[in-house]
Amino acid sequence: MTTATATVTRVRSLPRLAEPLPARSQASDVLLLADRAARRFPAVSERVHRGALLLLAGHVEPLDPHCYGTRWFRVLSQSPARRRRAYTVNTARFTCDCPDFLQGRAPEISGRRLCKHLFAALLWEVTRS
Ligand SMILES: [Zn+2]
Fold it and tell me: Which residues lie at CB < 5 A from ion ligand 1?
């Protein structure tokens, strides 16, 4: 399976945020994808864009699947460094341990609650090979 095919397969298993992008995407592709997702799902447009900024700021770290299992990420918060927190995201189960997710403020799409950390990790998956 080529990398591009693997990426498309992963994307198809998610609630569809937007059309998948080719492998080896650039920062402009991340923003383009975020814009498409935001237009498609206005209720989460702010979280999509914040997720894109987290990704572009290098705040998304995939965790070693051999240690943690598949599709686990650590996503750093946007807070100033002194108060920065790391949240744990799973893009297969659609979970995050941030307050926005746990307290039920993050909106739902297709029955999945989606916070900005989840969007950051989902965008990482869609745009990285
Ligand atoms: Zn979160």
Answer: 96, 98, 101, 115, 117
Q: For residue 54, how far is its CA from the centre of ligand 1 (angstroms)? A: 11
pLDDT digits (tens, 9 = 90+) for 33-58: 899 999 999 999 999 999 999 998 88
Tokens read off for 30: 């991340």
Q: Tokens 């990285």 identify what position?
A: 128
Tokens found for residue 87 = 């949240």
Q: How many angstroms does the Cα of residue 81 sit away from the middle of ligand 1? A: 17
Task: List pLDDT tens digits, range 5-25.
Answer: 444 444 333 334 444 445 556
**Among 24-28, 52-56, 80-84, which stretch is predicted with the lowest mean pLDDT?**
24-28
